[in-house]
Design the sequence.
DNA sequence: ATGGCGCAAGTGTGATCACAACGCGCGGCG
DNA sequence: CGCCGCGCGTTGTGATCACACTTGCGCCAT
């Protein structure tokens, strides 16, 4: 089965390829909550055997991105309100810290890139593109947090994003279209002003605003 | 990641058994940093084939408990000072929140159990039992945080403990023996008094005190 | 004696197979 | 007409095997 393409000199291990593919799909909300997955189906889709598919699925289950029934059947989880509230609180805790650490290192080039991404968000919002909205919104946050130089914290934040992925799409349906970049502008303003309390409040508000209606 | 699920009457799968065995060993500091592991060796030790051993190892690598070289060789990681500082900050963020959420639900039976565990800590400390100290100390924190009714946060905290596991033992060697339960007593006192700011400070101090000397 | 080279043992990866458990649908019975 | 039981297809699990790659050790040439 490993006959098709081997162009690169570095070996991109199959299970990692499957893992990344599924991971971005889940994080971007391309899989509905409650959807079932099968190892053979995944293997067929990615042109690998069951072994790499099983490893990728187990890894995602371990990270909370997928849930596994007692019989081993795998599906995307449907989160309870309590769990959504918890994950929102975790986002607030970690991302406020990441933003605070990124603040002293945020120079003008970063702020301009954030503004560019924010414009892209406005575009996908006007196009009713749910997946594009989630992806671009996460890109905004990741771009800011990369400046914090805190890989372990960023990994934790991405794990939380991953767990919230499938429900994000459901959230998008109820979300008012126009208020998407509202707190993003506050974040950018606080970055420009070097206002740390304002930045913390803006990030916390941005993270909490959408999730509150799902949890409450 | 989810440790709360009961296996019920079903036979626990082999890879999960290997995973839990390795996980507790790593978290308790029973494996030195930099030690190498082989899939066939693990399989031989747990009397399973390579397949469950590989899954368990990959899962631990995904959680940051083990590190994998470019050739796929697996060993326990040796953390940099920056990473230790990050993980300590994460502990502070998450565990302070967990303690704060546990405070309104903490009744007398819980406080008594914490005092019992604290006495056990004093015992193992006097016996120079590093592994026992780490295990009992984690039991103290877990017992408190279980009252927060926040499984996602607790899972995050345990992931951080897991990553710090191999270096915890190295920390224990430099640690003053007598000051171990010092902040624990402050935690218990704050719980008794219902003093939330005091509790937050005590937990933050307890989490940060030992790790600061490793990171700085 | 020492440094480079090649072979052999060992390791991770992925495919395939045998097996047990679960789910679902069909058919018979009340 | 409805309900229960059973059999087949499907799924996850774990063992085994073939293969590519790394590693480390010994041997030969300088």
Sequence:
């Amino acid at each position: 089965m490993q006959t098709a393409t081997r162009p690169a000199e570095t070996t991109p291990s199959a299970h990692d390829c499957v893992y990344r593919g599924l991971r971005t799909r889940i994080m971007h909300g391309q899989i509905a909550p409650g959807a079932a997955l099968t190892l053979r189906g995944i293997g067929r889709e990615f042109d690998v055997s069951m072994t790499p598919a099983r490893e990728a699925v187990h890894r995602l289950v371990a990270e909370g991105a997928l849930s596994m029934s007692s019989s081993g059947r795998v599906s995307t989880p449907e989160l309870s309100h309590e769990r959504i509230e918890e994950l929102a609180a975790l986002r607030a805790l970690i991302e406020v810290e990441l933003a605070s650490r990124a603040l002293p290192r945020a120079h003008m080039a970063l702020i301009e890139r954030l503004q560019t991404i924010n414009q892209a968000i406005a575009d996908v919002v006007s196009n009713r593109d749910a997946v594009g909205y989630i992806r671009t919104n996460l890109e905004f946050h990741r771009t800011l947090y990369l400046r914090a130089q805190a890989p372990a914290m960023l990994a934790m934040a991405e794990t939380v994003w991953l767990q919230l992925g499938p429900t994000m799409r459901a959230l998008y349906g109820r979300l008012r279209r126009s208020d998407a970049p509202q707190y993003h502008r506050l974040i950018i303003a606080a970055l420009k002003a070097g206002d740390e309390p304002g930045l913390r409040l803006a990030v916390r508000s941005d993270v909490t605003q959408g999730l509150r209606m799902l949890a409450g």
